[in-house]
Amino acid sequence: GYVGEGVLLECLEHPAVDHVLVVGRKSTGRQHPKLKELLVPDFFALEAKTDQLRGYDGCFYCAGVSSVGSNEVDFTRLTYDTTIAFARAVLAASPQATFTYVSGSGTDSSEKGRLMWARVKGRTENELGRVGFKAAYSFRPGIMTLRAGMRNPAWWMRVLVPVFAVLMP
To answer: Is 25 a residue whose pLDDT tops 70?
Structure first.
């Protein structure tokens, strides 16, 4: 997706990053000396892939779905359950890793607010803090700018993101 692609491009360019493993359901279609891909159809079935998750110092978890048109049960399965299952698999394979979750602006850490998506993301953030990583961080971007080399932004993002970037301080 859009967010993961931005994180991937930054990691590939950063001199302090030696290797990048992208775990996803489909290939990024990119070639780079630092890049390896692990294709998995189901983030709940990572036991057979544990060896490939070993030896990493950090994880940026950028997977997610929109809550538009989703009920709380389905959104929780795709947001909370998937994220926590993946985090536990990473921790089992690479206990030294720092886990970074890309959440969203307006996330509700109290888990009691009126917005369903904000409660679910808040619950996810809270649980990630208890999973057992040496460090776990949640980023709550309100808007992310486009960068050169991106392939995933939808047409409307290519139009609106630059407008918002100018309007927002």
So the answer is: yes
